Amino acid sequence: MFGAGSWGTAFAKVLADGGAEVTIWARRPEIAREIRETHRNTQYLRGINLPRTITATSSLRDSLRGAEQLYLAVPSQTLRDNLNALKPMLPAGIPVVSLMKGIEKASNARMSEVIADVLELDEERIAVASGPNLALEIAKEQPTAAVVSSVSLETAQAVAMAATNRYFRSFVNTDVVGTEFGGVLKNLIAVAIGIVDGVGYGENTKASIITRGLVEMTDFAVAHGGHPDTLSGLAGLGDLIATCQSPLSRNNTAGRLLGQGYALHEVVRQMDQTAEGLASVAPILSLARARGVAMPIVEQVHQVLAGTLKPQDIAPHLTTDETPTGERTTDDHEARTGSALRRALKRAFGVGGDGGRGPGGARP
Ligand SMILES: NC(=O)C1=CN([C@@H]2O[C@H](COP(=O)(O)OP(=O)(O)OC[C@H]3O[C@@H](n4cnc5c(N)ncnc54)[C@H](O)[C@@H]3O)[C@@H](O)[C@H]2O)C=CC1
Ligand SMILES: O=C(CO)COP(=O)(O)O
Protein backbone atom coordinates (compact mmCIF):
# COMPACT_ATOMS: atom_id res chain seq x y z
CA MET A 1 0.00 0.00 0.00
CA PHE A 2 1.52 3.25 -1.17
CA GLY A 3 0.28 6.01 1.15
CA ALA A 4 -0.43 6.04 4.88
CA GLY A 5 -3.20 8.64 4.96
CA SER A 6 -6.76 7.88 5.94
CA TRP A 7 -7.68 5.88 2.84
CA GLY A 8 -4.38 4.06 2.43
CA THR A 9 -4.53 2.93 6.05
CA ALA A 10 -8.23 2.01 6.00
CA PHE A 11 -7.86 0.09 2.72
CA ALA A 12 -4.81 -1.72 4.10
CA LYS A 13 -7.07 -2.87 6.92
CA VAL A 14 -9.69 -4.05 4.39
CA LEU A 15 -7.03 -6.14 2.64
CA ALA A 16 -5.58 -7.46 5.90
CA ASP A 17 -9.04 -8.38 7.19
CA GLY A 18 -9.51 -10.23 3.89
CA GLY A 19 -6.48 -12.37 4.71
CA ALA A 20 -3.59 -10.48 3.07
CA GLU A 21 -0.30 -9.45 4.61
CA VAL A 22 0.07 -5.75 3.89
CA THR A 23 3.04 -3.40 3.93
CA ILE A 24 2.21 0.29 3.98
CA TRP A 25 4.70 2.80 2.60
CA ALA A 26 4.52 6.03 4.61
CA ARG A 27 6.32 9.18 3.50
CA ARG A 28 6.98 10.16 7.11
CA PRO A 29 9.10 7.68 9.12
CA GLU A 30 7.27 8.54 12.37
CA ILE A 31 3.95 7.38 10.90
CA ALA A 32 5.55 4.16 9.64
CA ARG A 33 7.01 3.60 13.10
CA GLU A 34 3.70 4.20 14.86
CA ILE A 35 1.89 1.73 12.58
CA ARG A 36 4.65 -0.84 12.96
CA GLU A 37 5.10 -0.56 16.70
CA THR A 38 1.65 0.35 18.06
CA HIS A 39 -0.64 -0.84 15.21
CA ARG A 40 -2.26 2.57 15.08
CA ASN A 41 -2.25 5.60 12.81
CA THR A 42 -3.50 8.26 15.19
CA GLN A 43 -3.14 11.20 12.83
CA TYR A 44 -5.40 9.70 10.16
CA LEU A 45 -7.56 7.03 11.84
CA ARG A 46 -7.96 7.98 15.48
CA GLY A 47 -9.21 5.19 17.74
CA ILE A 48 -8.67 2.38 15.23
CA ASN A 49 -6.57 -0.68 16.04
CA LEU A 50 -4.94 -2.13 12.94
CA PRO A 51 -4.48 -5.86 12.32
CA ARG A 52 -1.05 -7.26 13.18
CA THR A 53 -0.72 -8.45 9.60
CA ILE A 54 -0.14 -4.81 8.60
CA THR A 55 3.37 -3.45 8.82
CA ALA A 56 4.79 -0.14 7.60
CA THR A 57 8.02 1.34 6.36
CA SER A 58 9.26 4.58 4.86
CA SER A 59 11.68 2.68 2.62
CA LEU A 60 10.23 2.37 -0.87
CA ARG A 61 12.42 -0.60 -1.67
CA ASP A 62 11.34 -2.51 1.45
CA SER A 63 7.66 -1.71 0.86
CA LEU A 64 7.73 -3.18 -2.66
CA ARG A 65 9.85 -6.26 -2.00
CA GLY A 66 7.78 -9.39 -2.72
CA ALA A 67 4.59 -7.38 -3.40
CA GLU A 68 1.87 -9.27 -5.30
CA GLN A 69 -0.40 -6.24 -5.79
CA LEU A 70 0.27 -2.50 -5.48
CA TYR A 71 -2.38 -0.06 -4.23
CA LEU A 72 -1.89 3.69 -4.61
CA ALA A 73 -3.44 6.18 -2.15
CA VAL A 74 -1.60 9.50 -2.24
CA PRO A 75 -2.98 12.92 -3.25
CA SER A 76 -3.59 12.87 -7.01
CA GLN A 77 -1.36 15.87 -7.75
CA THR A 78 1.63 14.00 -6.24
CA LEU A 79 1.11 10.71 -8.06
CA ARG A 80 3.37 11.31 -11.07
CA ASP A 81 6.45 12.17 -8.99
CA ASN A 82 5.81 9.26 -6.66
CA LEU A 83 5.44 6.81 -9.55
CA ASN A 84 8.70 8.02 -11.05
CA ALA A 85 10.37 7.24 -7.73
CA LEU A 86 8.92 3.76 -7.34
CA LYS A 87 9.13 2.67 -10.99
CA PRO A 88 12.62 1.11 -10.78
CA MET A 89 11.55 -1.08 -7.83
CA LEU A 90 8.15 -2.24 -9.10
CA PRO A 91 7.97 -6.05 -9.20
CA ALA A 92 7.22 -7.28 -12.73
CA GLY A 93 3.71 -8.30 -13.72
CA ILE A 94 1.75 -7.27 -10.62
CA PRO A 95 -1.59 -5.39 -10.80
CA VAL A 96 -1.46 -1.70 -9.91
CA VAL A 97 -4.62 -0.32 -8.33
CA SER A 98 -5.62 3.34 -8.00
CA LEU A 99 -7.65 4.23 -4.92
CA MET A 100 -7.52 7.93 -5.81
CA LYS A 101 -10.31 10.27 -6.87
CA GLY A 102 -8.64 13.20 -8.57
CA ILE A 103 -7.50 14.49 -11.98
CA GLU A 104 -3.95 15.60 -12.69
CA LYS A 105 -4.11 19.36 -13.14
CA ALA A 106 -1.12 19.64 -15.49
CA SER A 107 -2.41 17.05 -17.99
CA ASN A 108 -6.17 16.65 -17.25
CA ALA A 109 -5.37 12.91 -16.99
CA ARG A 110 -7.21 10.36 -14.88
CA MET A 111 -5.09 8.52 -12.33
CA SER A 112 -5.14 5.26 -14.33
CA GLU A 113 -3.83 7.23 -17.32
CA VAL A 114 -1.00 8.69 -15.23
CA ILE A 115 -0.15 5.17 -14.03
CA ALA A 116 -0.10 3.77 -17.58
CA ASP A 117 1.98 6.70 -18.77
CA VAL A 118 4.66 6.73 -16.06
CA LEU A 119 4.94 3.01 -15.38
CA GLU A 120 4.50 2.11 -19.06
CA LEU A 121 1.99 -0.58 -18.18
CA ASP A 122 -0.63 -2.27 -20.31
CA GLU A 123 -4.15 -1.19 -19.35
CA GLU A 124 -4.90 -4.83 -18.44
CA ARG A 125 -2.65 -4.56 -15.41
CA ILE A 126 -4.30 -1.41 -14.04
CA ALA A 127 -7.41 -1.31 -11.88
CA VAL A 128 -9.29 1.40 -10.03
CA ALA A 129 -11.40 0.96 -6.90
CA SER A 130 -14.19 3.39 -6.10
CA GLY A 131 -17.53 3.69 -4.33
CA PRO A 132 -19.15 5.10 -1.18
CA ASN A 133 -16.06 4.53 0.94
CA LEU A 134 -15.59 7.03 3.76
CA ALA A 135 -12.39 5.79 5.36
CA LEU A 136 -13.30 6.09 9.04
CA GLU A 137 -16.60 4.20 8.65
CA ILE A 138 -14.79 1.37 6.90
CA ALA A 139 -12.04 1.32 9.51
CA LYS A 140 -14.86 0.85 12.05
CA GLU A 141 -15.95 -2.16 10.00
CA GLN A 142 -19.33 -0.75 9.01
CA PRO A 143 -20.71 -2.84 6.07
CA THR A 144 -19.78 -1.22 2.74
CA ALA A 145 -19.55 -2.05 -0.96
CA ALA A 146 -17.18 -0.83 -3.65
CA VAL A 147 -16.50 -1.47 -7.29
CA VAL A 148 -13.18 -2.54 -8.80
CA SER A 149 -12.79 -1.70 -12.46
CA SER A 150 -10.28 -2.77 -15.07
CA VAL A 151 -10.44 -3.32 -18.82
CA SER A 152 -9.35 -6.84 -17.86
CA LEU A 153 -12.11 -8.63 -15.95
CA GLU A 154 -9.46 -11.04 -14.71
CA THR A 155 -7.47 -8.22 -13.10
CA ALA A 156 -10.63 -6.66 -11.64
CA GLN A 157 -11.62 -10.01 -10.13
CA ALA A 158 -8.17 -10.68 -8.65
CA VAL A 159 -8.22 -7.27 -6.97
CA ALA A 160 -11.88 -7.60 -5.88
CA MET A 161 -11.08 -10.98 -4.38
CA ALA A 162 -8.33 -9.43 -2.24
CA ALA A 163 -10.50 -6.43 -1.34
CA THR A 164 -13.41 -8.39 0.06
CA ASN A 165 -14.00 -9.36 3.67
CA ARG A 166 -16.92 -9.75 6.04
CA TYR A 167 -17.67 -6.00 6.15
CA PHE A 168 -16.40 -4.93 2.70
CA ARG A 169 -17.68 -6.30 -0.61
CA SER A 170 -16.06 -5.44 -3.95
CA PHE A 171 -18.04 -5.80 -7.16
CA VAL A 172 -16.36 -5.61 -10.56
CA ASN A 173 -16.90 -3.90 -13.89
CA THR A 174 -14.84 -3.09 -16.98
CA ASP A 175 -15.88 0.57 -17.30
CA VAL A 176 -12.74 2.25 -16.04
CA VAL A 177 -13.70 5.64 -17.51
CA GLY A 178 -17.13 5.73 -15.83
CA THR A 179 -15.83 4.35 -12.53
CA GLU A 180 -12.92 6.74 -12.31
CA PHE A 181 -14.83 9.84 -13.38
CA GLY A 182 -17.65 8.94 -10.96
CA GLY A 183 -15.20 9.23 -8.05
CA VAL A 184 -13.79 12.52 -9.31
CA LEU A 185 -17.10 14.16 -10.17
CA LYS A 186 -18.98 13.36 -6.99
CA ASN A 187 -16.30 15.34 -5.11
CA LEU A 188 -17.27 18.47 -7.04
CA ILE A 189 -20.96 18.02 -6.28
CA ALA A 190 -20.04 17.38 -2.61
CA VAL A 191 -18.22 20.73 -2.54
CA ALA A 192 -21.42 22.34 -3.91
CA ILE A 193 -23.50 20.64 -1.21
CA GLY A 194 -21.02 21.79 1.44
CA ILE A 195 -21.40 25.36 0.16
CA VAL A 196 -25.19 25.03 0.43
CA ASP A 197 -24.85 23.68 3.99
CA GLY A 198 -22.48 26.49 4.92
CA VAL A 199 -24.89 29.09 3.61
CA GLY A 200 -27.72 27.46 5.57
CA TYR A 201 -30.04 26.41 2.75
CA GLY A 202 -32.15 23.30 3.31
CA GLU A 203 -33.08 19.98 1.81
CA ASN A 204 -34.83 21.18 -1.38
CA THR A 205 -31.69 22.97 -2.54
CA LYS A 206 -29.51 19.99 -1.68
CA ALA A 207 -31.80 17.42 -3.32
CA SER A 208 -32.01 19.59 -6.45
CA ILE A 209 -28.24 19.93 -6.65
CA ILE A 210 -27.62 16.23 -5.99
CA THR A 211 -30.13 15.20 -8.66
CA ARG A 212 -28.95 17.73 -11.22
CA GLY A 213 -25.38 16.92 -10.22
CA LEU A 214 -25.91 13.28 -11.13
CA VAL A 215 -27.11 14.41 -14.57
CA GLU A 216 -23.92 16.46 -15.00
CA MET A 217 -21.79 13.54 -13.84
CA THR A 218 -23.52 11.14 -16.21
CA ASP A 219 -23.42 13.49 -19.20
CA PHE A 220 -19.73 14.10 -18.62
CA ALA A 221 -18.79 10.45 -18.17
CA VAL A 222 -20.85 9.32 -21.18
CA ALA A 223 -19.25 12.04 -23.34
CA HIS A 224 -15.88 10.52 -22.43
CA GLY A 225 -16.91 6.95 -23.20
CA GLY A 226 -18.23 5.86 -19.78
CA HIS A 227 -21.39 3.78 -19.38
CA PRO A 228 -24.41 5.55 -17.86
CA ASP A 229 -25.19 2.51 -15.66
CA THR A 230 -21.83 2.95 -13.91
CA LEU A 231 -22.90 6.42 -12.83
CA SER A 232 -26.08 5.06 -11.25
CA GLY A 233 -24.03 2.40 -9.43
CA LEU A 234 -21.72 2.49 -6.44
CA ALA A 235 -19.05 4.61 -8.13
CA GLY A 236 -21.58 7.30 -9.10
CA LEU A 237 -24.86 7.63 -7.23
CA GLY A 238 -23.57 5.56 -4.29
CA ASP A 239 -20.53 7.71 -3.71
CA LEU A 240 -22.50 10.89 -4.41
CA ILE A 241 -24.93 10.06 -1.59
CA ALA A 242 -22.19 9.14 0.89
CA THR A 243 -20.03 12.16 0.17
CA CYS A 244 -22.84 14.72 -0.01
CA GLN A 245 -24.44 13.71 3.26
CA SER A 246 -21.45 13.00 5.47
CA PRO A 247 -19.56 15.48 7.63
CA LEU A 248 -16.65 13.02 7.34
CA SER A 249 -16.21 14.08 3.70
CA ARG A 250 -13.32 16.50 3.28
CA ASN A 251 -14.82 17.86 0.04
CA ASN A 252 -18.10 18.51 1.81
CA THR A 253 -16.19 20.13 4.69
CA ALA A 254 -14.19 22.36 2.33
CA GLY A 255 -17.46 23.43 0.66
CA ARG A 256 -19.06 24.19 4.04
CA LEU A 257 -16.17 26.51 4.92
CA LEU A 258 -16.56 28.28 1.56
CA GLY A 259 -20.29 28.61 2.23
CA GLN A 260 -19.51 30.15 5.62
CA GLY A 261 -17.56 32.85 3.83
CA TYR A 262 -13.95 31.66 4.03
CA ALA A 263 -11.79 32.33 0.97
CA LEU A 264 -10.17 29.41 -0.84
CA HIS A 265 -6.70 30.03 0.62
CA GLU A 266 -8.19 30.07 4.14
CA VAL A 267 -10.03 26.81 3.46
CA VAL A 268 -6.86 25.16 2.18
CA ARG A 269 -5.04 26.32 5.32
CA GLN A 270 -7.72 24.84 7.59
CA MET A 271 -7.86 21.44 5.85
CA ASP A 272 -5.39 18.90 7.23
CA GLN A 273 -6.45 16.15 4.81
CA THR A 274 -6.80 15.89 1.05
CA ALA A 275 -9.90 17.45 -0.56
CA GLU A 276 -9.38 16.37 -4.18
CA GLY A 277 -12.35 18.32 -5.52
CA LEU A 278 -10.62 21.66 -5.08
CA ALA A 279 -7.90 20.76 -7.59
CA SER A 280 -10.17 18.82 -9.97
CA VAL A 281 -12.64 21.62 -10.78
CA ALA A 282 -10.53 23.38 -13.42
CA PRO A 283 -9.41 20.23 -15.32
CA ILE A 284 -12.96 18.85 -15.31
CA LEU A 285 -14.39 22.08 -16.71
CA SER A 286 -11.73 22.15 -19.38
CA LEU A 287 -12.52 18.55 -20.38
CA ALA A 288 -16.27 19.33 -20.30
CA ARG A 289 -15.88 22.34 -22.59
CA ALA A 290 -13.82 20.31 -25.06
CA ARG A 291 -16.72 17.82 -25.39
CA GLY A 292 -19.53 20.39 -25.20
CA VAL A 293 -20.89 19.08 -21.88
CA ALA A 294 -22.89 21.58 -19.82
CA MET A 295 -21.90 21.52 -16.13
CA PRO A 296 -23.65 24.48 -14.49
CA ILE A 297 -23.16 23.23 -10.92
CA VAL A 298 -19.45 22.52 -11.36
CA GLU A 299 -19.14 25.90 -13.12
CA GLN A 300 -20.63 27.62 -10.07
CA VAL A 301 -18.31 25.74 -7.71
CA HIS A 302 -15.44 27.06 -9.82
CA GLN A 303 -16.81 30.59 -9.51
CA VAL A 304 -17.22 30.33 -5.73
CA LEU A 305 -13.61 29.06 -5.45
CA ALA A 306 -12.46 31.98 -7.60
CA GLY A 307 -14.46 34.43 -5.47
CA THR A 308 -16.57 35.56 -8.44
CA LEU A 309 -19.86 34.05 -7.20
CA LYS A 310 -21.29 34.62 -3.74
CA PRO A 311 -21.92 31.25 -2.03
CA GLN A 312 -25.56 32.23 -1.37
CA ASP A 313 -26.10 32.59 -5.13
CA ILE A 314 -25.30 28.94 -5.87
CA ALA A 315 -28.25 27.12 -7.47
CA PRO A 316 -28.98 23.87 -9.34
CA HIS A 317 -28.88 25.92 -12.57
CA LEU A 318 -27.08 28.95 -13.93
CA THR A 319 -29.14 31.94 -12.81
CA THR A 320 -28.17 33.77 -16.01
CA ASP A 321 -29.89 31.08 -18.08
CA GLU A 322 -33.62 31.75 -17.96
CA THR A 323 -34.73 29.65 -20.93
CA PRO A 324 -36.88 26.72 -19.77
CA THR A 325 -35.36 23.45 -20.99
CA GLY A 326 -36.21 19.80 -20.55
CA GLU A 327 -35.17 18.33 -17.22
CA ARG A 328 -32.53 16.35 -19.11
CA THR A 329 -30.63 18.53 -21.48
CA THR A 330 -28.84 16.14 -23.79
CA ASP A 331 -30.29 13.83 -26.49
CA ASP A 332 -31.87 10.69 -25.12
CA HIS A 333 -30.35 11.16 -21.72
CA GLU A 334 -33.62 11.29 -19.82
CA ALA A 335 -34.62 7.86 -21.00
CA ARG A 336 -31.17 6.46 -20.39
CA THR A 337 -30.57 7.83 -16.93
CA GLY A 338 -34.18 7.49 -15.88
CA SER A 339 -34.23 3.79 -16.59
CA ALA A 340 -30.73 3.36 -15.15
CA LEU A 341 -31.88 5.03 -11.94
CA ARG A 342 -34.95 2.81 -11.77
CA ARG A 343 -32.73 -0.22 -12.17
CA ALA A 344 -30.39 1.11 -9.47
CA LEU A 345 -33.29 1.56 -7.06
CA LYS A 346 -34.56 -1.92 -7.88
CA ARG A 347 -31.10 -3.29 -7.16
CA ALA A 348 -30.86 -1.33 -3.93
CA PHE A 349 -34.02 -2.97 -2.66
CA GLY A 350 -33.65 -6.28 -4.44
CA VAL A 351 -30.86 -8.46 -5.77
CA GLY A 352 -27.21 -7.31 -5.58
CA GLY A 353 -24.84 -6.39 -8.40
CA ASP A 354 -23.29 -3.20 -9.63
CA GLY A 355 -23.80 -1.48 -12.95
CA GLY A 356 -25.84 -4.51 -14.00
CA ARG A 357 -22.70 -6.57 -14.16
CA GLY A 358 -22.39 -7.91 -10.62
CA PRO A 359 -19.22 -9.59 -9.53
CA GLY A 360 -18.64 -10.99 -13.00
CA GLY A 361 -19.41 -14.61 -12.36
CA ALA A 362 -17.80 -16.11 -9.28
CA ARG A 363 -18.35 -14.22 -6.07
CA PRO A 364 -15.19 -12.17 -5.49
N1 LIG B 1 -10.33 9.26 2.91
C1 LIG B 1 -11.30 8.67 2.26
O1 LIG B 1 -12.36 8.42 2.84
C2 LIG B 1 -11.14 8.30 0.83
C3 LIG B 1 -10.13 8.84 0.04
N2 LIG B 1 -10.02 8.48 -1.27
C4 LIG B 1 -8.98 9.01 -2.11
O2 LIG B 1 -7.71 8.54 -1.65
C5 LIG B 1 -6.69 9.46 -2.02
C6 LIG B 1 -5.81 9.71 -0.82
O3 LIG B 1 -6.63 10.40 0.12
P1 LIG B 1 -6.55 10.21 1.69
O4 LIG B 1 -5.83 9.04 2.12
O5 LIG B 1 -7.94 10.36 2.17
O6 LIG B 1 -5.75 11.55 2.01
P2 LIG B 1 -5.06 11.94 3.38
O7 LIG B 1 -4.94 13.42 3.33
O8 LIG B 1 -5.77 11.32 4.51
O9 LIG B 1 -3.62 11.27 3.26
C7 LIG B 1 -2.74 11.58 2.22
C8 LIG B 1 -1.44 10.86 2.47
O10 LIG B 1 -0.54 11.18 1.42
C9 LIG B 1 0.66 11.69 1.99
N3 LIG B 1 1.26 12.65 1.08
C10 LIG B 1 1.02 13.97 0.97
N4 LIG B 1 1.80 14.50 0.02
C11 LIG B 1 2.56 13.49 -0.46
C12 LIG B 1 3.57 13.41 -1.43
N5 LIG B 1 3.98 14.46 -2.10
N6 LIG B 1 4.12 12.20 -1.67
C13 LIG B 1 3.72 11.11 -1.00
N7 LIG B 1 2.77 11.14 -0.07
C14 LIG B 1 2.20 12.31 0.20
C15 LIG B 1 0.24 12.30 3.32
O11 LIG B 1 1.36 12.37 4.19
C16 LIG B 1 -0.77 11.26 3.77
O12 LIG B 1 -0.14 10.15 4.32
C17 LIG B 1 -7.41 10.70 -2.57
O13 LIG B 1 -7.36 10.68 -3.96
C18 LIG B 1 -8.85 10.53 -2.09
O14 LIG B 1 -9.77 11.12 -2.96
C19 LIG B 1 -10.87 7.57 -1.84
C20 LIG B 1 -11.86 6.99 -1.10
C21 LIG B 1 -12.07 7.30 0.29
O1 LIG C 1 -14.31 9.41 -1.57
C1 LIG C 1 -14.72 9.43 -0.43
C2 LIG C 1 -15.86 8.61 0.02
O2 LIG C 1 -16.20 7.68 -0.94
C3 LIG C 1 -14.12 10.35 0.55
O3 LIG C 1 -14.62 11.62 0.30
P1 LIG C 1 -13.77 12.87 0.74
O4 LIG C 1 -12.48 12.82 -0.03
O5 LIG C 1 -14.62 14.05 0.40
O6 LIG C 1 -13.54 12.74 2.22
Give structural notes.
This protein is α/β, with parallel strands linked by helices and 364 residues long. The protein has 16 helices and nine strands. Helix 4 links the parallel strand 3 and strand 4. Helix 8 packs across helix 14. 51% of the residues are buried. The C terminus is likely disordered. 1,4-dihydronicotinamide adenine dinucleotide binds next to helix 1. Its main location: cytoplasm. This is Glycerol-3-phosphate dehydrogenase [NAD(P)+]. InterPro entries: 6-PGluconate_DH-like_C_sf, 6PGD_dom2, G3P_DH_NAD-dep, G3P_DH_NAD-dep_C, G3P_DH_NAD-dep_N, NAD(P)-bd_dom_sf. Pathway: Membrane lipid metabolism; glycerophospholipid metabolism.
Q: Secondary-structure element sequence?
A: HEHEHEHEEEHEHEHEHHHHHHHHH
Q: Number of helical segments?
A: 16
Overall average pLDDT: 91
Terminal CA distance: 20 Å
Note the beta-strand portion: 5-15%
CATH class of the largest domain: Alpha Beta
State the major sheet.
Answer: 5 strands, mixed
Bound molecule types = 1,4-dihydronicotinamide adenine dinucleotide, 1,3-dihydroxyacetonephosphate
| Share of helical residues | 40-55%
Report the count of strand segments. Answer: 9
Strand order of the largest sheet: 3-4-7-8-9
Here the CATH topology of the largest domain equals Rossmann fold
Structural class: alpha/beta
Uncertain segments: 330-337, 349-364
Total of domains: 2
Radius of gyration: 20 Å
Architecture of the largest domain, according to CATH? Answer: 3-Layer(aba) Sandwich
User: CATH homologous superfamily of the largest domain - what is it?
Assistant: NAD(P)-binding Rossmann-like Domain
